[in-house]
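Milestone M4 deliverable, item 7.
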Amino acid sequence: MRFRTLPDPDHLPALDWRFVQEHPAVGLGPEDHMPRILLLYGSLRPRSYSRLATEEAARLLHLFGAEIRIFDPSDMPFPDQIAGDDHPAIHELREHAMWSEGMVWCSPERHGQITGLMKAPIDNLPLNMGGMRPTQGRTLAVMQVSGGSQSFNAVNTLRLLGRWMRRSAPAAPGVIHGTRCACFRPRVTARFPAGRCRQARRKAFRHGTR
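Output delivered:
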């Protein structure tokens, strides 16, 4: 199974428990199973900050009552590289996509875009698979990790890909800036929707939301 085991699933030292609502979806729909979330990341570095951010998201989802799976992309082939897509990694990815009710995508930004490793599993998810649609209508959260950059290119690309694949993608995603140091200290940055006035941007900047 191409899963990463989530280390220390209950370890959330930076979480302010005053603002935590555990199991926030209780009462909003059928409760015959926990929400099923598949998480994808796009880096193979031994200490990958996009993987660390993905694992942190998985811990929060676990806290909120979701069943999570983190897919390991280490042997994911490129689209059309294998005849008939007959590769174990592709088969497993599609199986997990059908199992999931939502996904989290997290990519580093490299040369102003998502990585090829992030794009490969997305391209290996067809819009239609034997009459079933593995992506349509499923919730999607997107993140990017930048080594000090203030760009939103990667997260915008992930959002566009999600909408193209008929997913419920966020209108204004955030960005996690993680400096490449010995410790992982993410900083969430708000992204303003297009059309918001310059005055509102300045006000938000003064209050520290940027």
